[in-house]
């Protein structure tokens, strides 16, 4: 039986909700920040740092898209890229900007 307000198969959490996968990914980033990053020193060519970018991307876009954005960012972080200011792209929520009429049957 589906909960009120949800359709069968709907798995998208409400906006702003931190899922277990998001928490797990952010915890892994925090472990990196505490134990690995101090050993290798500051190497990021971008602002905000790649780990800050990853946390922001995961919080704003969710686990899957945030991880993809973070991976793309890390792949750009090499000696041949100039670096610089590179914020997380804004999240476009297609569900709240829909122009379809809502039927109240």
General description of the model:
It is found in: Cell membrane. Belongs to the UPF0161 family. This protein has about 100 residues and is mainly alpha-helical. Helices cover about 45% and strands about 5% of the residues. It has helices at about 20-40, 50-60, 65-75, and strands at about 45, 85. Strands 1-2 form a two-stranded parallel ribbon. Helix 1 runs antiparallel to helix 2 (about 50-60) and helix 2 packs antiparallel against helix 3. The longest helix has 21 residues, at about 20-40. The two termini are about 20 Å apart. About 10% of the residues are buried. Residues about 1-5 have low confidence and may be disordered.
Number of helices: 3
β-sheet strand percentage: under 5%
Low-confidence stretches: 1-7
Main sheet overview: 2 strands, parallel
In whole angstroms, the N-to-C terminal distance is 20 Å
- Average pLDDT confidence is 78
- Topology pattern, helix = H, strand = E: HEHHE
The secondary structure category is mainly alpha
Q: Which word captures the global form?
A: flat
Task: Specify Rg, calculated over alpha carbons.
Answer: 18 Å
Instruction: Give the beta-strand count.
Output: 2
The helix fraction, in percent, is: 40-55%
Widest sheet: strand order? 1-2
